Amino acid sequence: MISPLMPTYNRADLAFERGEGAWLYTADGRRFLDFGAGIATSSLGHGHPGLVAAIAEQAARVMHVSNLYRVPQAERLAERLVAHSFADSVFFCNSGAEANEGMVKMMRRAQAAAGRPERTRILCFDGAFHGRTLAMLSATGNEKYLSGFGERAPGFDHVPFNNMNAVRDAIGPHTAGIMVEPIQGESGVNVGTTRFLRELREAADEYGVLLGFDEVQCGMGRTGRLFAHEWANIAPDVMSTAKGIGGGFPLGAILATEAVAAPLTPGSHGTTFGGNPLACTAGNAVLDVLLQPGFLAGVERKGQKLREALDALAARHPAVLDGVRGQGLMLGLRSRVPVAELQAAAMREEMLTVTAGDNVLRLVPPLVLTDEDCEEAVNRLDRAARALADVRPMAAAS
Ligand SMILES: *Cc1c(COP(=O)(O)O)cnc(C)c1O
């Protein structure tokens, strides 16, 4: 018989009762080091006093009013995101998929407003992940997620990631925009090279198409910059972000230049919950931490330190591990054994991780983790890898 909670996930038999920083506690007192952070979402970790107090206070005042009225918390969050990014204007919504849907609508609408209504197609990349709505399944293009859900939504083309020749060949008279993750998360923590991102910007300008970044996972401080594309010193025309922006409270955002945002006139796009006082209070509390002097530099430093330790770990366990990839605190550890086995071995060491494509173990801890948390993570992964090497000596053959 089907479970009352619809079984769309293979859930680990673990339930957490409370958390503190990078640690989660079960009711029976076990303590897990959380390097999954709710899939790169609990950016301030668990039980962050500032975030908790802000949400509790706002919840008691007013949670939701609708976008028929001014929402000062949303105005403030938008002003701050504009002040710290390429964007001139921000639309708030509730999730990554919803942000990406809005981003695609904006790119099409901006082309139409510029007198090019035939430009509707969006160029996407192999290995992309943009969410689970019908249109974003098509933008994602992964057969595994599309199967059984009917025809693909039209308008999305795919080319190989980090391949500029393919991009230039695929841009046509009907291309409205390019949608790309500066770092692909889901398919294995694949970093878009600086050169690739810069050349995407050049090609977009040359062909009159819009450049849209999906920073749902790699944005909001994850890489040690507020947004990952800042590493390449270029700016998109429009960008989606979500996951970490609310520190675990559901919130998404589309950031855009005036040229892209302005055609979205009153009534042309909407959302009931998006940008409500409670969600935007959470967003402001997260930003309070991210914008503290030195905080993002600390993320960069911790990321580098963790990366060096993981490189050494991979070198110590060549039969089990096959190198490290990623940027800041968005790291991937490629496994030589099936990655689910590596994840399970880490879980036996009471450490939580997320798997990704290409047999990669994703390490996306809370941005507030301490140096001791990092060291503890490496120790636990070391024990996990050793346990696997002991039971699978044959893996050395690969
Ligand atoms: C998680 C993710 C999404 C989808 O976000 P949801 O909040 O699950 O809808 C989209 N794009 C990227 C890059 C993601 O990592």
UniProtKB/TrEMBL annotation:
Residues annotated for pyridoxal 5'-phosphate binding in this entry: 96-97, 129, 214-217, 272
Cofactor note: Binds 1 pyridoxal phosphate per subunit.
Pathway involvement of the protein, from the record: Amino-acid biosynthesis; L-arginine biosynthesis; N(2)-acetyl-L-ornithine from L-glutamate: step 4/4
Annotated keywords: Amino-acid biosynthesis, Aminotransferase, Arginine biosynthesis, Cytoplasm, Pyridoxal phosphate, Transferase
Binding site for N(2)-acetyl-L-ornithine: 132, 271
Domain of life per record: Bacteria
Named cofactor requirement(s): pyridoxal 5'-phosphate
Enzyme class label: transferase
Gene3D superfamilies per record: Aspartate Aminotransferase, domain 1, Type I PLP-dependent aspartate aminotransferase-like (Major domain)
Catalytic activity: N(2)-acetyl-L-ornithine + 2-oxoglutarate = N-acetyl-L-glutamate 5-semialdehyde + L-glutamate
GO MF entry, a single one: transaminase activity
Cellular localization per UniProt: Cytoplasm
Enzyme Commission number(s) from the entry: 2.6.1.11
Residue numbers carrying N6-(pyridoxal phosphate)lysine: 243
Note from the entry: May also have succinyldiaminopimelate aminotransferase activity, thus carrying out the corresponding step in lysine biosynthesis.
NCBIfam families: argD, PRK01278.1
Similarity comment text for this entry: Belongs to the class-III pyridoxal-phosphate-dependent aminotransferase family. ArgD subfamily.
Quaternary organization: Homodimer.
Name this protein carries in UniProt: Acetylornithine aminotransferase
Source organism of the structure: Rhizosaccharibacter radicis
